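[Q] Does anyone have a clean C-alpha cell version of this?
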Amino acid sequence: MEYYAVKKLAKLAGVSVRTLHLYDKMGLLTPFTRTEARYRLYGEKELLRLQQILFYRELDIPLKEIADILDDPAFDLTQALETHRTALQAKRERITTLIDTIDKTLYHLKNRTMLKVEELYEGLSPETVTGQREKAISSWGEERVLKGEDILRNLSKKEVNAMREELDTVTKQLLASKDKDPGSRGVQALIARHYKVIMKFTGRSEEHGTADYGKCLGELYLSFADGGDENTVFSKFAKRAIQYFVG
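[A] Here you go.
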C-alpha cells in the first residue's frame, strides 16, 4: 500500500498542510499511522475520506456536520458520490449561466451598447409608455414584458432602432392593407415579418412561439383600439390576419 506524507497529500488534494493538521486535531481526518519521528502518513482510506470532506465543503456544509455524516454507520460512499455528482453538476450549470451573463454585460459595457430602460421608449410620452406597458402586461403577463425589456437592453442601440423601424414599416403597410383579405399572400407576408420581430423581442424560438403570438398579440391589437372607427377596423383586421397566420 502506498502512503502519503502530509505535504504530499496537501499538494495532491489542493489544500494547505495547516488544513490537514486542523482536520487531524478535530478527529475529522486522522492519519493511518505515524512514523517514529511522529510524521503523519495517509493511506487510500484516508484519501477517500478527504475527498468526501472536500466535496461536502464545496457544498458549504460545516465541518462538524461533515464529521457526523462520515462517521454515521449508514454512510454509503457510492451513494454519496452520486449525490455529490448531481449537486456539483447543478452548481456548475448555475456558475456557467452566471459567467455567460457577466460576459454579455462586460461586452456591452466595454462597447457602450447597453441601453437604459428609458431609452427603450425613446420618442414616446410617459403617459403613452405607461398605458401601453399596462396593456401589454395585461395581455402578455408582467414576467414576459420585463423579460422583453431586458432582452432589448442587451441589444445595441442600432439593433433596437432597426427593430423599431421594421415594426413601424410593417405596421404602416398593414394599415394601408386593412381593406384587403387578411389571408392574402401580401398581408400574410407582412404578418410573417411582424412575427419575426416580435419573437426576437421576447427572446423566444420562432418554432415554439406561434400559439402565444396568435392568442396574446391578437387580443393586444384589439385592446389598442381607442374607440375610433379607423383604429377599430385596423385592430380587427390585424387580429384576423394573425389568426390566419397561426392557423
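[Q] Thanks! Anything notable?
[A] The chain has three domains: 4-75, 76-112, 118-246.
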